[in-house]
Amino acid sequence: TNDPRLFDPVVGNHEFNGRDHNQYLLYEDYDNDSRDDTPPDIHYEAGMGCIDCHGSYDLHGGDVDDPAGEHLASRMEHGVAIRCESCHGTVSATAPTVMGIAHDGVTRELATDATGKALPHVVKEADGHFYLYSKLTGAQHFVPQTHDVVVDNSVTNPFTSQPVYSPKGSYAMGTYDGLASTGLGPEQSYHAGTPNGFTHATNMDCASCHASWTNTCMGCHLEGEYTNNNNTFSNITGDRIVFREREADFVYQSPVFFQLGVDSSNKVTQVSSNTKMFFRWRDRFGGQPTETFAFSDRSGKGSDSGVTAPSLSHNAMMAHSIRGRVDANNEGPRYCVACHLTTDGMAAYGAEYTALRNALAANDFDALDQPPLGFDSVLRNHFGRNTGNQMNSPLWVHMVAGLGTGLFLFDEDGCPVNPIDNDTQRKGCNGQAPSASPFSAARVAFNMDRIVTPLGVPMGGSTHALVQPVQGGNLRDGAPDPDMAGPLGASLIEQLTDPTTGIVLDSWLDADGASHGLATTLVGP
């Protein structure tokens, strides 16, 4: 592609870490359903650019709590003021506004960012609709309000005349309280007629469901070496140094895998079980490599030898892969089966699910390659080829909760312990494929995507503190650091993954957005 929003057509982005733009993949279809598993973000698809959302604070590294600019932000969450709600509002209200000077120099009703700062290019017009005027192209974009998606109030898109209301959106985001004014809510037949007032919007951010894919990087191998090259300088001091990076390689990358965790705003969101860094260097005498060191955070948490098979690190991510719905050519948001057990899924794969839960809870890695499991016969298909959980597999839910897949086992040198991987050039294996020798559970030193135990105890490191103190329920009960961002807590894990005491849906939307078990089939977007 030569899209100028991504690539400079003159240099082809060769200066970006030396990569050629032809290395970028525009279409992937892991589950063979003819839909793009990595569709473009809907805002990008509409022609918007980064600057249409990210301005002032977001671009200049300031702190959103320091409008005078006296301090630099230490974390991304401290310096990003834009939110989905800034333009789209919430399930209960349209986006907040203030009067201010708009992009055209006229005083208008303007949307605001999280700090209350006016967004001059997001205007609530006289017709009651919000419009974004692109800073990149000047184009006018209609901005649908989440409340109008959830509540059937006859609002239509002024450009297409189509209803903004979505029955599926109302089911997924609405409040199950029996009131039309709050949407349908995720009704289940076992409590039909007895609304419980639940809504996903209470403790979850928008990207939890609407980020259609999140890239995962498992096993980052960095190798340094001595150099007497006079062109090597420190990024910190600017002084010439005698160390340079020799290699920077990733073992596994996939947009299919994803997990949920708690971000620094104490909201459930998508997290990525990375970056798992292994480091070694070559000395100046013969270039011999040192032993391999594993890192997670600055305190060493996540590689602690006192934890059996730790996971190193994990990070909350705002994956810029937002989609509103699945369509004929593209996968859509995360529907119900992406995060929840269902009655049909348990009926089909209950034995496999029980075996996976027991094996990973006990660090019994040998059981992963024994019936009813098996790396090649079960795990490969339930995870690596199962976009959005097309199979309605409870094993997939185990992954999403942060309890692991069993596919990302590494030894102490950062080499995958994986009998289905035949790549002879796999990094960290010194030229040997992971399957070159029989699978051996004794070699497992790290279980990369098991970031938490069922009791809420993290197996990896995360050093992000909450932006605000916890108010109300703590989403990370069981964790020794509940005031930090990190994996889900014990209560949420139980609700998602325990088939006896947790939530098993008898009514749901599948990975294609089709409804199952609902008293009334949800027709429409």
What this model shows, in words?
The chain has 525 residues and is an alpha+beta fold. Strands 1-2-3-4-5 form a 5-stranded antiparallel beta sheet. The two termini are 30 Å apart. Strand 3 and strand 4 form a beta hairpin. The model has no long low-confidence stretch (mean pLDDT 88). 15% of the residues lie in helices and 17% in strands. The protein has helices at residues 42-45, 56-60, 76-79, 84-88, 146-150, 167-173, 207-210, 343-361, 375-384, 394-400, 490-497, and strands at 97-101, 107-112, 118-124, 130-133, 140-143, 216-226, 243-254, 259-262, 268-272, 277-282, 293-295, 312-313, 315-316, 341-342, 409-410, 446-447, 460-461, 486-487, 504-505, 508-509, 515-516. The chain contains 11 helices and 21 strands.
